[in-house]
Protein backbone atom coordinates (compact mmCIF):
# COMPACT_ATOMS: atom_id res chain seq x y z
CA UNK A 1 0.00 0.00 0.00
CA UNK A 2 1.37 3.41 -0.98
CA UNK A 3 2.05 5.73 1.92
CA UNK A 4 0.37 9.14 2.20
CA UNK A 5 1.64 11.47 4.91
CA UNK A 6 0.57 15.00 5.87
CA UNK A 7 2.70 17.35 7.97
CA UNK A 8 0.75 20.19 9.58
CA UNK A 9 2.66 23.11 11.05
CA UNK A 10 1.16 26.20 12.72
CA UNK A 11 2.50 29.39 11.15
CA UNK A 12 4.59 31.24 13.77
CA UNK A 13 2.62 29.40 16.43
CA UNK A 14 3.33 31.32 19.64
CA UNK A 15 2.76 34.68 17.97
CA UNK A 16 -0.31 33.49 16.07
CA UNK A 17 -1.92 32.12 19.23
CA UNK A 18 -1.22 35.34 21.14
CA UNK A 19 -2.58 37.40 18.22
CA UNK A 20 -5.74 35.28 18.01
CA UNK A 21 -6.44 35.86 21.70
CA UNK A 22 -5.94 39.61 21.36
CA UNK A 23 -8.17 39.83 18.29
CA UNK A 24 -10.93 37.96 20.17
CA UNK A 25 -10.73 40.70 22.82
CA UNK A 26 -11.06 43.43 20.20
CA UNK A 27 -7.38 44.37 20.20
CA UNK A 28 -5.01 44.98 17.30
CA UNK A 29 -3.81 41.98 15.28
CA UNK A 30 -0.11 41.87 16.15
CA UNK A 31 0.55 39.64 13.13
CA UNK A 32 0.18 42.76 10.97
CA UNK A 33 2.86 44.82 12.76
CA UNK A 34 6.50 44.19 13.71
CA UNK A 35 5.99 42.00 16.78
CA UNK A 36 7.51 39.07 18.60
CA UNK A 37 7.10 36.69 21.51
CA UNK A 38 10.01 36.64 23.93
CA UNK A 39 11.34 37.61 27.33
CA UNK A 40 11.52 40.95 29.11
CA UNK A 41 11.49 43.95 26.76
CA UNK A 42 12.45 46.48 29.44
CA UNK A 43 15.34 44.42 30.81
CA UNK A 44 16.27 43.23 27.31
CA UNK A 45 16.71 39.66 28.51
CA UNK A 46 15.69 36.38 26.91
CA UNK A 47 15.40 35.47 23.26
CA UNK A 48 12.91 35.75 20.39
CA UNK A 49 10.62 32.69 20.37
CA UNK A 50 8.43 33.75 17.43
CA UNK A 51 8.10 36.79 15.18
CA UNK A 52 5.61 38.29 12.74
CA UNK A 53 6.21 38.60 9.00
CA UNK A 54 6.65 42.41 9.32
CA UNK A 55 9.28 41.77 12.04
CA UNK A 56 11.06 39.31 9.78
CA UNK A 57 11.53 42.13 7.24
CA UNK A 58 13.71 43.90 9.83
CA UNK A 59 15.99 40.86 9.93
CA UNK A 60 14.71 39.62 13.28
CA UNK A 61 15.36 35.90 13.78
CA UNK A 62 13.94 33.26 16.08
CA UNK A 63 16.43 32.47 18.84
CA UNK A 64 18.29 35.77 18.78
CA UNK A 65 18.64 37.85 21.98
CA UNK A 66 15.91 40.43 22.59
CA UNK A 67 18.48 43.23 22.88
CA UNK A 68 19.75 42.48 19.39
CA UNK A 69 16.21 42.37 17.98
CA UNK A 70 15.37 45.75 19.53
CA UNK A 71 18.45 47.30 17.97
CA UNK A 72 17.15 46.17 14.58
CA UNK A 73 13.59 47.37 15.28
CA UNK A 74 13.26 49.77 18.26
CA UNK A 75 9.45 49.86 17.90
CA UNK A 76 9.11 46.08 17.99
CA UNK A 77 5.98 45.04 19.92
CA UNK A 78 6.84 42.36 22.48
CA UNK A 79 4.56 39.92 24.30
CA UNK A 80 5.65 37.46 26.97
CA UNK A 81 5.13 33.72 26.38
CA UNK A 82 1.99 32.03 27.74
CA UNK A 83 2.49 28.28 27.62
CA UNK A 84 -0.97 27.45 28.97
CA UNK A 85 -2.47 29.29 25.99
CA UNK A 86 -0.14 27.41 23.65
CA UNK A 87 -1.13 24.01 25.04
CA UNK A 88 -4.83 24.86 24.66
CA UNK A 89 -4.44 25.85 21.01
CA UNK A 90 -2.20 22.89 20.28
CA UNK A 91 -4.88 20.52 21.52
CA UNK A 92 -7.57 22.30 19.47
CA UNK A 93 -5.91 21.93 16.09
CA UNK A 94 -4.67 18.40 16.74
CA UNK A 95 -8.17 17.32 17.72
CA UNK A 96 -9.35 18.45 14.28
CA UNK A 97 -6.53 16.46 12.66
CA UNK A 98 -7.65 13.34 14.56
CA UNK A 99 -11.12 13.67 13.03
CA UNK A 100 -9.61 12.90 9.61
CA UNK A 101 -6.52 10.75 10.20
CA UNK A 102 -6.40 7.23 11.63
CA UNK A 103 -2.89 7.89 13.00
CA UNK A 104 -1.64 11.25 14.30
CA UNK A 105 1.84 11.83 15.71
CA UNK A 106 2.44 14.98 17.75
CA UNK A 107 5.91 16.08 16.68
CA UNK A 108 5.93 19.20 18.88
CA UNK A 109 3.46 21.65 20.39
CA UNK A 110 2.80 23.24 16.99
CA UNK A 111 3.24 20.44 14.45
CA UNK A 112 2.03 16.92 13.79
CA UNK A 113 2.14 14.14 11.21
CA UNK A 114 -1.01 12.50 9.82
CA UNK A 115 -0.75 9.02 8.29
CA UNK A 116 -3.49 9.06 5.64
CA UNK A 117 -2.36 5.83 3.98
CA UNK A 118 -5.27 3.69 2.81
CA UNK A 119 -7.86 6.47 3.07
CA UNK A 120 -8.13 7.15 -0.69
CA UNK A 121 -11.66 5.75 -0.89
CA UNK A 122 -12.85 8.16 1.80
CA UNK A 123 -10.68 11.08 0.66
CA UNK A 124 -9.88 10.58 -3.04
CA UNK A 125 -8.18 14.00 -3.40
CA UNK A 126 -5.48 14.51 -0.73
CA UNK A 127 -4.84 18.13 -1.75
CA UNK A 128 -8.53 18.99 -1.38
CA UNK A 129 -8.55 17.29 2.02
CA UNK A 130 -5.50 19.29 3.11
CA UNK A 131 -7.29 22.51 2.18
CA UNK A 132 -10.35 21.40 4.13
CA UNK A 133 -8.31 20.77 7.29
CA UNK A 134 -6.36 24.01 6.87
CA UNK A 135 -9.50 26.10 6.36
CA UNK A 136 -11.32 24.50 9.30
CA UNK A 137 -8.45 25.41 11.62
CA UNK A 138 -8.37 28.98 10.31
CA UNK A 139 -12.15 29.48 10.41
CA UNK A 140 -12.76 27.84 13.79
CA UNK A 141 -9.71 29.08 15.70
CA UNK A 142 -8.41 32.13 13.83
CA UNK A 143 -4.83 30.99 13.18
CA UNK A 144 -3.26 29.50 10.07
CA UNK A 145 -1.26 26.38 9.27
CA UNK A 146 0.81 25.03 6.43
CA UNK A 147 0.14 21.51 5.20
CA UNK A 148 2.81 19.46 3.45
CA UNK A 149 1.90 16.28 1.57
CA UNK A 150 4.28 13.50 0.57
CA UNK A 151 4.88 9.77 0.54
CA UNK A 152 6.91 9.86 3.76
CA UNK A 153 7.51 12.06 6.79
CA UNK A 154 10.60 13.72 5.32
CA UNK A 155 8.86 14.83 2.12
CA UNK A 156 5.76 16.00 3.99
CA UNK A 157 7.88 18.03 6.41
CA UNK A 158 9.98 19.55 3.62
CA UNK A 159 6.79 20.45 1.72
CA UNK A 160 5.21 22.21 4.70
CA UNK A 161 8.31 24.41 4.98
CA UNK A 162 7.82 25.78 1.46
CA UNK A 163 6.19 29.20 1.01
CA UNK A 164 4.22 30.40 4.07
CA UNK A 165 1.73 31.20 5.54
CA UNK A 166 -1.61 29.42 5.07
CA UNK A 167 -0.48 27.17 2.21
CA UNK A 168 -0.76 23.58 1.01
CA UNK A 169 2.24 22.10 -0.81
CA UNK A 170 3.01 18.67 -2.24
CA UNK A 171 6.39 17.01 -2.52
CA UNK A 172 5.89 13.67 -4.22
CA UNK A 173 8.87 11.45 -4.99
CA UNK A 174 8.69 12.42 -8.66
CA UNK A 175 8.85 16.12 -7.64
CA UNK A 176 12.05 15.80 -5.58
CA UNK A 177 14.38 16.71 -8.44
CA UNK A 178 12.37 19.78 -9.39
CA UNK A 179 11.30 21.11 -5.98
CA UNK A 180 13.88 19.85 -3.47
CA UNK A 181 17.21 19.41 -5.21
CA UNK A 182 17.68 23.12 -6.08
CA UNK A 183 17.35 24.11 -2.39
CA UNK A 184 20.35 25.08 -0.28
CA UNK A 185 21.78 22.01 1.48
CA UNK A 186 20.99 23.66 4.85
CA UNK A 187 17.28 23.30 4.02
CA UNK A 188 17.50 19.50 4.27
CA UNK A 189 16.17 18.10 7.52
CA UNK A 190 18.94 17.29 10.04
CA UNK A 191 21.60 19.39 8.31
CA UNK A 192 22.82 21.84 10.95
CA UNK A 193 25.21 24.74 10.74
CA UNK A 194 28.39 22.72 11.28
CA UNK A 195 27.40 20.04 8.78
CA UNK A 196 26.46 22.72 6.27
CA UNK A 197 29.89 24.35 6.59
CA UNK A 198 31.64 21.01 6.14
CA UNK A 199 29.57 20.05 3.10
CA UNK A 200 29.96 23.43 1.40
CA UNK A 201 33.71 23.33 1.96
CA UNK A 202 33.70 20.31 -0.35
CA UNK A 203 31.46 21.90 -2.97
CA UNK A 204 28.16 20.41 -1.79
CA UNK A 205 25.94 23.49 -1.89
CA UNK A 206 22.48 22.19 -2.80
CA UNK A 207 20.43 19.17 -1.81
CA UNK A 208 20.91 17.96 -5.38
CA UNK A 209 24.69 18.12 -4.95
CA UNK A 210 24.32 16.00 -1.83
CA UNK A 211 22.03 13.50 -3.55
CA UNK A 212 24.56 12.95 -6.35
CA UNK A 213 27.44 12.08 -4.00
CA UNK A 214 28.12 8.47 -3.06
CA UNK A 215 27.70 7.29 0.51
CA UNK A 216 31.41 6.43 0.50
CA UNK A 217 32.49 9.99 -0.29
CA UNK A 218 30.11 11.38 2.32
CA UNK A 219 31.37 8.94 4.94
CA UNK A 220 34.75 10.62 4.88
CA UNK A 221 33.05 13.92 5.75
CA UNK A 222 30.38 13.04 8.31
CA UNK A 223 30.84 9.40 9.31
CA UNK A 224 29.19 6.25 7.99
CA UNK A 225 25.85 6.35 9.83
CA UNK A 226 25.08 10.01 9.16
CA UNK A 227 26.36 9.75 5.57
CA UNK A 228 23.83 7.03 4.79
CA UNK A 229 20.99 9.05 6.34
CA UNK A 230 21.95 12.22 4.46
CA UNK A 231 22.16 10.37 1.15
CA UNK A 232 18.76 8.71 1.64
CA UNK A 233 17.10 11.95 2.73
CA UNK A 234 18.63 14.00 -0.10
CA UNK A 235 17.04 11.51 -2.50
CA UNK A 236 13.67 11.87 -0.77
CA UNK A 237 13.71 8.50 0.97
CA UNK A 238 12.57 8.00 4.56
CA UNK A 239 10.93 4.89 6.05
CA UNK A 240 10.30 6.20 9.58
CA UNK A 241 6.73 5.44 10.74
CA UNK A 242 4.10 7.85 12.00
CA UNK A 243 3.68 6.84 15.64
CA UNK A 244 0.82 7.66 17.97
CA UNK A 245 2.96 7.15 21.06
CA UNK A 246 6.46 8.44 21.73
CA UNK A 247 8.90 5.52 22.13
CA UNK A 248 10.41 5.05 25.56
CA UNK A 249 13.23 7.55 25.99
CA UNK A 250 16.68 6.06 26.10
CA UNK A 251 18.78 8.95 27.26
CA UNK A 252 21.09 10.07 30.03
CA UNK A 253 21.24 13.71 31.00
CA UNK A 254 22.36 16.14 33.66
CA UNK A 255 21.03 19.63 34.41
CA UNK A 256 22.06 22.44 36.69
CA UNK A 257 19.82 25.26 37.94
CA UNK A 258 21.78 28.22 39.30
CA UNK A 259 20.84 30.13 42.45
CA UNK A 260 22.14 33.22 40.64
CA UNK A 261 21.99 33.49 36.86
CA UNK A 262 25.31 33.00 35.09
CA UNK A 263 26.42 35.00 32.07
CA UNK A 264 30.13 34.49 31.43
CA UNK A 265 31.78 31.99 29.10
CA UNK A 266 33.90 30.70 31.98
CA UNK A 267 30.86 29.91 34.15
CA UNK A 268 28.98 28.30 31.26
CA UNK A 269 31.97 26.16 30.31
CA UNK A 270 32.43 25.04 33.92
CA UNK A 271 28.77 24.00 34.08
CA UNK A 272 29.07 22.10 30.77
CA UNK A 273 32.22 20.36 31.99
CA UNK A 274 30.50 19.17 35.17
CA UNK A 275 27.45 17.96 33.20
CA UNK A 276 29.65 16.14 30.65
CA UNK A 277 31.54 14.37 33.43
CA UNK A 278 28.29 13.20 35.05
CA UNK A 279 26.70 12.06 31.78
CA UNK A 280 29.80 10.25 30.50
CA UNK A 281 30.33 8.51 33.85
CA UNK A 282 26.72 7.27 33.89
CA UNK A 283 27.07 6.06 30.31
CA UNK A 284 30.24 4.10 30.99
CA UNK A 285 28.73 2.57 34.12
CA UNK A 286 25.72 1.38 32.07
CA UNK A 287 27.95 0.40 29.11
CA UNK A 288 26.07 2.88 26.89
CA UNK A 289 27.34 4.84 23.90
CA UNK A 290 25.74 7.87 22.33
CA UNK A 291 25.25 8.91 18.71
CA UNK A 292 23.62 12.22 19.63
CA UNK A 293 24.54 15.03 22.04
CA UNK A 294 21.97 17.65 23.03
CA UNK A 295 22.11 20.81 25.14
CA UNK A 296 19.55 23.28 26.39
CA UNK A 297 19.66 26.62 28.17
CA UNK A 298 16.84 28.26 30.11
CA UNK A 299 16.91 32.04 30.41
CA UNK A 300 15.74 34.29 33.22
CA UNK A 301 12.27 34.56 31.67
CA UNK A 302 12.05 30.72 31.56
CA UNK A 303 12.26 30.62 27.77
CA UNK A 304 14.23 27.59 26.58
CA UNK A 305 16.49 27.09 23.57
CA UNK A 306 17.91 23.69 22.73
CA UNK A 307 20.00 22.07 20.03
CA UNK A 308 21.26 18.57 19.26
CA UNK A 309 23.85 17.06 16.94
CA UNK A 310 24.71 13.56 15.81
CA UNK A 311 28.31 12.58 16.49
CA UNK A 312 30.42 10.89 13.83
CA UNK A 313 31.02 7.75 15.91
CA UNK A 314 29.17 6.43 18.99
CA UNK A 315 31.07 7.47 22.11
CA UNK A 316 31.03 7.68 25.90
CA UNK A 317 34.25 9.69 26.17
CA UNK A 318 33.91 12.80 28.32
CA UNK A 319 36.12 15.04 26.17
CA UNK A 320 34.23 14.26 22.95
CA UNK A 321 30.84 14.82 24.56
CA UNK A 322 32.08 18.08 26.11
CA UNK A 323 33.44 19.40 22.80
CA UNK A 324 30.15 18.61 21.04
CA UNK A 325 28.26 20.42 23.80
CA UNK A 326 30.55 23.46 23.55
CA UNK A 327 29.91 23.72 19.81
CA UNK A 328 26.15 23.50 20.33
CA UNK A 329 26.20 26.18 23.04
CA UNK A 330 28.07 28.51 20.69
CA UNK A 331 25.20 28.09 18.23
CA UNK A 332 22.42 29.02 20.66
CA UNK A 333 23.93 31.46 23.20
CA UNK A 334 25.01 35.01 22.46
CA UNK A 335 27.73 34.94 25.12
CA UNK A 336 26.11 37.46 27.45
CA UNK A 337 22.41 36.79 28.15
CA UNK A 338 22.00 35.50 31.75
CA UNK A 339 21.31 31.77 32.04
CA UNK A 340 19.12 30.27 34.77
CA UNK A 341 19.57 26.58 33.89
CA UNK A 342 21.76 24.52 31.57
CA UNK A 343 21.50 20.87 30.60
CA UNK A 344 23.39 18.26 28.59
CA UNK A 345 22.07 14.92 27.37
Mean pLDDT: 90
SSE succession: EHEEHHEHEEHEHEHHHHHEHEEHE
Number of helices, counting only DSSP H or I runs of 4 residues or more: 13
Structural class: alpha+beta
Structure overview:
This protein is an alpha+beta fold. 41% of the residues lie in helices and 21% in strands. It has helices spanning 13-24, 53-56, 66-72, 83-100, 126-141, 153-160, 176-180, 193-201, 207-212, 215-222, 224-234, 265-286, 318-332; strands spanning 5-10, 35-37, 50-51, 77-79, 103-108, 111-115, 145-150, 168-171, 254-262, 290-299, 304-315, 339-344. A 5-stranded mixed beta sheet has the order 5-6-1-7-8. It has a 4-stranded antiparallel beta sheet with strand order 9-12-10-11. Strands 3-2-4 form a 3-stranded mixed beta sheet. Strand 7 (145-150), helix 6 (153-160) and strand 8 (168-171) form a beta-alpha-beta unit. Helix 10 crosses helix 11. The protein is globular.
Helix/strand layout:
Blueprint: E1 5-10, H1 13-24, E2 35-37, E3 50-51, H2 53-56, H3 66-72, E4 77-79, H4 83-100, E5 103-108, E6 111-115, H5 126-141, E7 145-150, H6 153-160, E8 168-171, H7 176-180, H8 193-201, H9 207-212, H10 215-222, H11 224-234, E9 254-262, H12 265-286, E10 290-299, E11 304-315, H13 318-332, E12 339-344
Parallel strand pairs: 2-4, 7-8
Antiparallel strand pairs: 1-6, 1-7, 2-3, 5-6, 9-12, 10-11, 10-12
Helix pairs in contact: 4-5, 10-11, 12-13
Q: Keywords, please?
A:
345 residues; alpha+beta; five-stranded mixed beta sheet; four-stranded antiparallel beta sheet; 13 helices; 12 strands; globular
What does this entry show, briefly?
The chain has 345 residues and is α+β, with helices and mostly antiparallel strands. Helices cover 41% and strands 21% of the residues.
